[in-house]
Specification:
10 helices; Creatine Amidinohydrolase; alpha+beta; 2 domains; single chain; 19 strands; binds manganese (II) ion; Creatine Amidinohydrolase, Chain A, domain 1
């Protein structure tokens, strides 16, 4: 069960909290807009937005008092006015998500101390509520459906860009929201590019094809990767694939509420220890996912915390050999008390596509 923001503020001695990160605004207020801010004090919740959104915001029944910041000549002035009516000595702001301009406005308009802080709402977001889990489950389902469709389009001569466009179509057609970035569809030697952009390269017989993509459902995202081969896989492709498949399965087996996240990173290495592939392994092997595609917790050698039930994370070990190619398998899982549930259900064995 995730905690209430006002409860966390009280524990941390935060009197007033100005929230400007867009996913954090959405998470706490349920309100979707690219122009909205929250001011949270002990016993009041304020949503600040502009006239274009005011009607929609007022219908939002989540306990927030809606304020049109234009009527008060700016966000900074509005916040200043609201906190001057409370007996407040300090205002916390989100350190990495406030513009210089807005910070200056707040500084100019208020006399209270402005204190930067980070990660408060992000930590809450890392433990999913049941309604969020349902949306994420649905986003994974849409991703799986699109994957099963795109396999039929992988043929000699189609370009990476065309494949990406078709994948985008299948995702939308199955019910996906728009996502903020393109799907990754790479082929041949280009599969070693970790976040490569689909190009006009045509897919050839014998190519590895790496697809990293996902859907959105009511703002909640899925993220999955599959690597397939057009035609018969070579000995080396088969070997690399087997290593990564084992690596991912070891990671899945390691996940459980209470387990140190670092140990899941260590599990990703077991399958390749001592092999020629170890040095081509990339250390970012997974991440939390929700309203943002990459959010807490992050899975790597420097992870400090432990998994909590209802974290939703991706596991994505990969081997990337420059100028030769790469293999990545990525699945999205729900952390539970006795392990994890894999939400992306697409097959994980090596698919060899025959024309
Ligand atoms: Mn990912």
């Amino acid at each position: 069960m995730s905690k209430d923001i006002q409860q966390v503020m009280e524990e941390k001695g935060i009197e007033a909290f100005f929230i400007s990160q867009i996913h954090n605004v959405r998470y706490l207020s349920g309100y979707k807009s690219d122009d909205a801010f929250l001011l949270i004090v002990k016993d009041k919740l304020y949503l600040l937005t502009d006239p274009r959104y005011i009607e929609e915001a007022s219908e939002n029944n989540t306990g927030y008092i809606t304020i049109n910041w234009r009527e008060c000549n700016g966000v900074g002035r509005t916040v200043a006015r609201l906190i001057s009516s409370e007996s407040i000595n300090s205002l916390h702001v989100e350190e990495n998500n406030i513009s210089f301009d807005l910070f200056n406005q707040l500084h100019k308009e208020t006399t209270v101390e402005i204190i930067p802080i980070e990660g408060i709402v992000e930590d809450l977001r890392s433990v999913k509520r049941l309604d969020e889990i349902e949306c994420l489950r649905k986003a994974c389902e849409i991703g799986d459906k699109a994957f099963s469709k795109i396999l039929g389009d992988i043929k000699e001569g189609i370009t990476e860009r065309q494949l990406s466009a078709k994948l985008g179509y299948y995702l939308k057609n199955e019910g996906s929201d728009a996502r903020g970035y393109e799907n990754i569809t790479l082929s041949g030697a280009r599969t070693s590019l970790l976040h490569g952009i689909p190009s006009d390269k045509e897919i050839q017989e014998g190519d590895l094809i790496l697809m990293d993509f996902g859907a959105g459902y009511q703002g909640y995202l899925s993220d999955m990767s599959r690597t397939v081969v057009l035609g018969k896989a070579s000995e080396k492709q088969r070997e690399m694939y087997a290593v990564i498949k084992k690596s991912e399965e070891d990671m899945i087996a390691s996940v459980r509420a209470g387990v140190e996240i670092k140990s899941t990173y260590m599990a990703s290495l077991m399958a390749m220890e001592g092999s020629q592939y170890e040095k081509y392994h990339y250390t970012g092997v997974g991440h939390g996912i929700g309203l943002a595609v990459h959010e807490r917790p992050f899975i790597g050698p420097r992870s400090e915390s432990s998994f909590v039930a209802n974290n939703i994370i991706t596991l994505e070990p990969g081997i990337y050999i420059p100028k030769w190619g790469g293999v990545r398998i990525e699945d999205q899982v729900l952390v539970t008390h006795d392990g994890c549930e894999v939400l992306t259900k697409s097959p994980r064995h090596l698919i060899e596509i025959s024309n």
